[in-house]
From TrEMBL:
Domain Glycosyltransferase 2-like: 23-186
InterPro entries: Glyco_trans_2-like, Nucleotide-diphossugar_trans
Keyword Cytoplasm among record annotations: no
Signal peptide annotation: none
A GO term for molecular function: hexosyltransferase activity
Source organism of the structure: Roseovarius bejariae
The keyword Transferase is assigned to this record: yes
Keyword entries, A-Z: Transferase
Protein name: Glycosyltransferase
């Protein structure tokens, strides 16, 4: 995997006139071994008018040392927190320091492909102000096997709040480009350590979504992902969903989908926890919650019933099912 670090330079005035400023935010925490790759992927963009804001959230590894190498770069602003505030707070901190018409967020262990910003800005500029987010296709790099695979998810555009609730999240997390107006209206909630992609449930109430049919970014699957803390993430998602459906601004037709949303959340997280993470006990808790909400519906789902039985197996046995699960979601691709 190599990223070209050649940057196409335009004069400042030409870049500003022809290409609106894009603020790329990298929230950093204990990813010293990965963050340079993320930074270089931003500097390698073919789009010329970018500011990069890096906020490190009190890392205990040598992330600060790596980040400081870019202190003199004219496109980069660095903020180093002494104490850990959580991802939502860090993103809000970076948003306050940003100036771009458009915003992109890049986790410090992932990377952009060179045409990402150019493709999505072109799409956004062709849309009206109701469109607040342009997302795209993405891929996943598995550190354990060194494989890169396209991620196949359904595509929905327009007013997608109902689709997000009924299907689940299909916005590949590292791909969205946001209009600044989005974050003037909806900020990441700091009552959650990392609201993550769940924020789209709120954004989709106020803005339309569009899509670019191209792989624009790659997420890295490794043992240090925040998503690997299965129990904490599971609890946060459940709390977020309850909070979301209590929001006064939700339309009545969306509020009516609370049971549908919770059922899907419990089912999907159960499968991920048991098969992907080997977290049998936490997975069973989700299946039990789904059963209490809709007993017959839960029993009619053979994969869910099978996962419940498998959840009693030792963790190492459960992890062996991960490759089977992967094959259902990905196909191999080279970059």
């Amino acid at each position: 995997m190599q990223i070209s670090t050649q940057i196409r330079h335009l004069g400042p005035s030409q870049a500003m006139i022809d290409n609106p400023l894009v603020s790329v935010i990298i929230p950093s925490y204990n990813h010293a071994q990965y963050i340079e790759y993320a930074i270089e992927s931003v500097l390698a963009q073919t789009y010329p008018n970018i500011e990069l804001i890096i906020v490190d959230d009190g890392s205990s590894d040598n992330s600060h040392e790596v980040i400081r190498k870019y202190e003199e770069h004219p496109q980069i602003r660095i903020i180093l927190n002494k104490k850990n505030k959580g991802q939502s707070a860090v993103i809000n901190q970076a948003l306050a320091a940003s100036s771009g018409k458009y915003i992109a967020i890049l986790p410090s262990d992932d990377w952009f492909l060179p045409e990402k910003i150019a493709l999505q800005v072109a799409k956004m500029e062709a849309c009206d102000q109701e469109v607040g987010v342009v997302y795209a296709a993405g891929a996943r790099y598995f550190e354990d096997t060194e494989e890169t695979a396209n991620v196949y998810l359904p595509v929905h555009t327009g007013w997608i709040a109902r689709n997000l609730i009924e299907w689940g999240n299909f916005i590949y997390p590292v791909t969205p480009l946001y209009r600044r107006d989005v974050f003037d209206k909806v900020r990441p909630s700091e009552q959650f350590k990392a609201e993550g992609e769940a924020i789209h449930l709120r954004i989709a109430i106020h803005f339309r979504y569009e899509y670019v049919d191209a792989v624009v970014a790659i997420m890295r699957d490794h043992s240090y992902n925040i998503g690997k803390d299965a129990t904490t993430l599971n609890e946060e998602l459940a709390k977020h969903r309850e909070w979301y459906f209590s929001l006064p601004e939700l339309p009545d037709d969306i509020k009516a989908l609370k049971k549908v949303s919770l059922l899907r959340l419990y089912r999907v997280k159960a499968m991920q926890l048991i098969i992907d993470r080997g977290e049998g006990k936490t997975g069973r808790i989700n299946i039990t919650k789904a059963f209490k909400l809709a007993p017959l519906d839960t029993l009619r789902r053979p994969k869910l019933v099978a996962a419940f039985m498998l959840s009693f197996l030792p963790r190492l046995w459960l992890i062996s099912f991960k490759k089977i699960r992967r094959s259902e979601l990905f196909s191999k691709a080279k970059f």
